[in-house]
Design a protein that fits this description.
alpha+beta; 4-stranded antiparallel beta sheet; 6 helices
Length: 134
C-alpha cells in the first residue's frame, strides 16, 4: 500500500495533475484505515485478510505438513533458528511462522536462558548455604 501511495505522489511531478493524485491517495488511505478498523473489530476478517500463524515445530519435532503449506524447506527453517542462536531443533518446545514471516518460538524448559531473577535466587541460595556452614 505504501509503495502504491508513494508512486501516486510521484506522478503529479511529471503530469502537473496534483488534485487527481491527492484524491486517489486520500481514497487509498481511507480504504486502508477502514480495512484496519474492520480487522480490529472482527477476528474472522483478520484471519481471512492476514491469515494465521502456522506451527512448524512441536515438542522438538518438525511439522512437515505446515512447512509444505508455507513453502518452507527444513534448511530455511534451520537458518531462521540459527539466526535466533538456536543450534538444535530438539531444543525447541514449539515454533511458529507468524503472519508477518517472523519466527516465534519457546525453548524447552531445560534449554531456556537464565533470567536475572533465576541468578538472584541462585545467589541467595549460595549465600544461605555459606552462612549455615560458618
Amino acid at each position: 500500500m505504501m509503495v502504491a501511495v508513494g508512486s501516486l505522489i510521484i506522478q503529479p511531478v511529471g503530469d502537473r495533475n496534483i488534485w487527481i493524485t491527492m484524491v486517489v491517495t486520500f481514497l487509498m488511505v481511507i480504504t486502508l484505515l477502514f480495512v484496519e478498523y474492520i480487522v480490529l473489530k472482527f477476528n474472522k476478517v483478520e484471519n481471512i485478510i492476514y491469515g494465521k500463524s502456522k506451527l512448524v515445530i512441536e515438542n522438538g519435532q518438525i511439522n512437515e505438513a505446515n512447512l509444505k503449506k508455507l513453502r518452507l524447506t527444513v534448511d530455511m527453517l534451520e537458518l531462521r533458528l540459527r539466526q535466533q542462536n538456536i543450534q538444535h531443533i530438539s531444543d525447541v518446545q514449539w515454533a511458529t511462522i507468524e503472519t508477518n514471516g517472523q519466527l516465534g518460538y519457546v525453548l524447552k524448559p531445560n534449554k531456556q536462558y537464565a533470567t536475572k531473577e533465576d541468578i538472584q535466587k541462585l545467589m541467595d541460595i549460595i549465600q544461605e548455604l555459606s552462612f549455615t556452614h560458618l
